[in-house]
Each structure stands twice: as C-alpha cells, then as structure tokens.
Design brief:
The complex is a heterodimer of chains A (281) and B (261). Chain A is an alpha/beta fold and 281 residues long. Chain A has 9 helices and 13 strands. The N terminus of chain B is likely disordered. Classes of the chains: A alpha/beta (281), B mainly alpha (261).
C-alpha cells in the first residue's frame, strides 16, 4: 500500500529530519506510529499524503508517487490532522460538498457515526467545540472508505466518553481492506486497537513489528526487585518493577504494555530489537 | 475492492464542476456581501448629490456611475481573487485543499473560472440591475422614460475594462498562491514596483536615445515609428494575452508544487 524508499527530507538546509528512511505499510493493518515530540511523525504523514515532497527518495501509494497528488490516489486516501479548521458550513453541507470526491463514501455510516458521537449534523461546524469537530472529521474519514487512512493524534481533544466511542467505532469498522496509520502520544488510548507498532526516533524508523510478533517474542510482567531473570527493560513501580522480558517457549501469555514497550524501545532499542533479529539469524 | 479506473488522472469536467461548487459554497458569503456592499455603496454615492448638493434626481442617470461601478467590479474582483486560495496558507486548512481528490489543473482552472468568468457574469448582472434601479428612480421622478438606458457590457469602454480585469486577475491569482498573508496588498505592491521599474527603464532609455539623436550618432526612421503606432493596439492585446497565459502558467506551477505551510 505505502512504500517509502530512501526518503530524505530537511526543513532547514543541512539539518536532515529523515535520512534514507525506508518503510512499507500493508493493507489490512492498523499501524500505531509512535515517537517523541519532534521525531517527525506528522512530517512522515505529510509525506505519505503528498503534502510534503521528499528531498531525495520516494514515497508511493499503490505504486504511484504521492507527491504527484493524482486524483485517484487522493480519492482513496484521507488525512485526519491533529490541528485543523473546518469551513463555516453545516456538517450536512460539508458532507454534500465533499462526498462526490470519494466514490466509496458511505452516507449511512456517516450518519450512524455522528449519532454515536452525539454530533448534530445541522449545526454549523464553526459552532461546534474542538472535540465535536474532531469527532465529525473522524466520522467523515471513516465514512470515506478510503484504503489509506492517516490519523494524527485522533484522540487529542476528545473527552473520556468520546475516546471510548472512538475505540468502539474503530473496533466495529471493517479495516480488512484498508491501511490505517495512527500517530499518537496517547499510547493507552489505542492499545487495543493497533496491530502493528512503528516507532520513529530522530527521523529513523527504529522499530516496526506486528503485535503478534511482539507477543511471541516479549513478555510483559510485574517482577520483584530481587528477580534474577534477564530483563530487557524495566521501570520502577510501587512494590517492584514493570519489566519487558524475552519470551521463553511455553511461558504464559501476557498483555502487551505499549507504553512500557515504547519507553523500552526509546531507551534500550538495541536490546529489544535484538530479540526480533535473533530468529532471522 | 474499488474500480481503479473510477477516478482517472486526466482532466475531468465532472470534478472541475465539483471543485467549482466547493469554491462557491465556501466563498459565497464573502462574495454576496462584497457584491451587495459595493452595489449599496454605488447607490449611496449616486444618492449623495441628491441629498446634500440638492442636485435634481432627474439629471443623474446611471451613466455617470458606470465608471465607478466598473472600478468596484475590478477592485472587488481582485480582492476576492486574492483570497480564493486562503485554505492553502495555513497548516490547519491546507490538508483539505491539497488532499482534495481533484487534479491541480482542475483546482486551478476552477479557481480561475469562478473568480474571472463567473464573477464577471455575476458583477455584470448586479451592475445591470443597479442600472435599472437608478434609471427607474430617475425616470419615475421625472415622469419621462425616453432617456432610460440599460447598462451595456458590450460597449467598447466596458469591454476594455473587462480585458483589463482579466489581465490583472491573472497576476492576483498567482499572488493568491504565492503569498501567504496579505495577498492583495503584496501583489499590488509588486505590480506598482514593476511599473516604477519600467517607468525608470523607459525614461533612462528615452534619455539615452535622445542624447544619441542629438549627437547624430543615431537616427531613427520616422515612418517606422508611425507604422509601429498603428500596430500599438494589436500589439498591446497580443502582449497582454501572452502575459496572461504566462502568469496563469506560473500560478498553476506554484499550485502544483505547493506543500503544506
């Protein structure tokens, strides 16, 4: 679906943000794109959507260069930015203007999602709160049925019930024929949703593994301070440590702690990555 | 899976009209307020002499306001044109325009069409109606309808004004894409700077030419100058058309290479 090859990009001369970045994203997956502030998550999404052009290298969607912004590519892609302004029209009018551009748009789904999110379609979009507008755009993005959905911090600005509604809607939507990329800092909001973890740090992809593979290779446990087992990464918690351990054959299944894993990748990336390399060798 | 040929890269008249409709809906408030505001202002200007100078209303036909109306048409159109790509210049809105599933050519031609052809038709209709209103008030007051005249957009003067608008419009359309803020003022400043530059270039060239002619180093065939004067009008339109096409081409390329702000 998305192929990025040797992509280099700099906002300022001689200050490369991406240096020969490579990434492949497949249809049928929900990718969680994580990274520290300034890692380049939004910039990467802007490259994928063709809103930024690489200095060198290429970014292709289904074999077509994203920077060309072909209508057929754009009609199968939707970007949900973190910060956005919507025009001063009603939600209904916005839908009427834009739906003809998306051949797969599902109006019934849109109305259903708006009902679920408690957004009134006859209100002017500028009269809605930021959270309401975000829910409107989330509903719109899902209703486009675009094969590539890029969501930048979708849960930012949403209240607790709305976050739960978002998870419910995402879980109830069929993503088998689409590729969803969710960039976020709020790891816990999306823990149950994503099936592939991609970590971007200093302009490089430092981790890119499926949840199944992570579950196979790593174990997430609460251990005592005097536990002698080999620990890949740990964090002090009340009454012991929260730790990432290499998974041994026959050991019990544990819930993946994405926040812990992210911290582990950032601080001890090589050690964790080694677990995934070992099998290949 | 979706049919990949459902949306093609070649120019689609259907998508062109969809983009046109989008431009209209997103800008309609500004345009309607602009046109009605200008019409109201022209009407008030027409009424001023009646109210304050005690000029008999019957002496004032719409003809005397026609130039003012055309001036408002030009300036108003250029201001609206400068704002046509407002979405492009903020990261919070650029995504909607840049990722809108239409080609750059469709987006650019739709913007050109709505701010030049469609706007001109709307302005002509508004001036025509305003003319009828003013003429009717005069004729009704006077009781004589013989002098009643309709606004004629096909008069030579008006056609020339339309041509002038289309010329400046192509520059302001380029400015609407190129500049991030204060597009109208910045484009105006660039035009004024170019005119000043041209004025000085021509003046210095003229001085050098005069000096050379005085010192007999250079002679010019006066017949040639006379012949050039005959061609001046055709040449003006020819060069003007080339410049319009050039500015539009630059505008299109600017839009094609536009990245998120």
């Amino acid at each position: 679906m998305v192929s990025i090859h040797n992509l280099s990009f700099a906002f300022k001369k001689n200050q490369l943000l991406f240096d020969n970045l490579n990434l492949e994203l497949q249809t049928g997956f929900i990718y969680g794109l994580f990274g520290l502030n300034g890692a380049g998550k939004t910039t990467l999404l802007n490259h994928i959507s063709g809103m930024l052009f690489p200095k060198t290298g290429s970014c292709k969607i289904s074999g077509k260069s994203s920077r060309k912004r072909y209508p057929e590519t754009l009609s199968d892609l939707f970007v949900l930015p973190e910060q956005f302004d919507l025009p001063s029209v009603t939600a209904e009018s916005y839908v009427n203007i834009h739906t003809p551009f998306y051949p797969g748009f599902n109006v019934d789904y849109m109305h259903q999602a708006l009902r679920e999110f408690l957004v009134e379609p006859d209100k002017n979009l500028n009269e809605l709160s930021y959270g309401q507008r975000k829910k409107f755009l989330i509903a719109f993005s899902l209703a486009t049925n675009a094969s590539l959905l890029l969501m930048d911090e979708p849960t930012n600005g949403l209240d607790i019930p709305s976050k739960s509604q978002f998870r419910k809607i995402m879980a109830a939507t069929d993503h088998s024929e689409r590729c969803v990329v969710i960039s976020t800092h709020q790891v816990r909001d999306l823990e149950t949703m994503i099936d592939h973890l991609t970590v971007l740090n200093d302009g490089n992809i430092i981790f890119h593994e499926g949840i199944e593979s992570i579950a196979e290779k790593l174990s997430f446990e609460k251990i005592a301070d005097d536990d002698n087992r080999f620990v890949l990464y740990s964090e002090e918690i009340f009454g012991g440590k929260s730790a990432i351990l290499p998974k041994k054959p026959g050991s019990k299944e544990t819930q993946i702690d994405l926040e812990l894993l992210f911290n582990g990748i950032i601080h001890k990336g090589d050690v964790i990555h080694q677990q995934f390399r070992e099998e290949v060798v | 899976m979706r049919d990949p040929n459902q949306f093609s890269s070649s120019f689609s008249i259907e998508r062109f009209f969809l983009v046109l409709k989008r431009f209209f809906i997103l800008n309609q408030k500004n345009w309607i307020v602009g046109i009605l505001g200008a019409a109201g202002l022209i009407f008030s200007l027409w009424m001023l002499p009646v109210l304050f100078i005690d000029t008999p209303i019957e002496l004032l036909g719409f003809k005397m306001m026609e130039g003012t109306a055309m001036f408002f048409y030009t300036v108003g159109g250029l201001v609206l044109t400068s704002r046509i790509f407002f979405e492009l210049h903020s990261p919070a809105t650029a995504f909607q325009f840049l990722t809108l599933p239409a080609s750059t050519l469709e987006k650019f031609t739709a913007a050109w069409f709505i701010s030049s052809v469609a706007y001109t038709l709307a302005a002509v209709a508004a001036i025509f109606l305003l003319g009828i209103l003013v003429e009717s008030i005069s004729a009704f007051k006077l009781g004589i309808w013989d002098y009643f005249r309709f606004f004629n957009p096909f008069e030579a003067d008006n056609l020339q004004r339309f041509a002038g608008y289309f010329f400046y419009h192509s520059i302001f359309l380029l400015g609407a894409i190129y500049f991030k803020k204060n597009n109208f003022l910045k484009t105006l400043l660039v035009i004024i700077s170019i005119f000043i530059g041209l004025f000085f270039t021509i003046a210095i060239g003229g001085l050098i030419l005069t000096f050379m002619m005085i010192t007999d180093d250079f002679s010019i065939e006066y017949q040639l100058l006379e012949s050039a004067a005959n061609w001046q009008s055709i040449l003006t339109y020819f060069i003007g058309t080339i410049l319009i096409v050039t500015f539009l081409l630059f505008g299109y390329l600017q839009l094609k290479n536009k990245q998120v702000a």
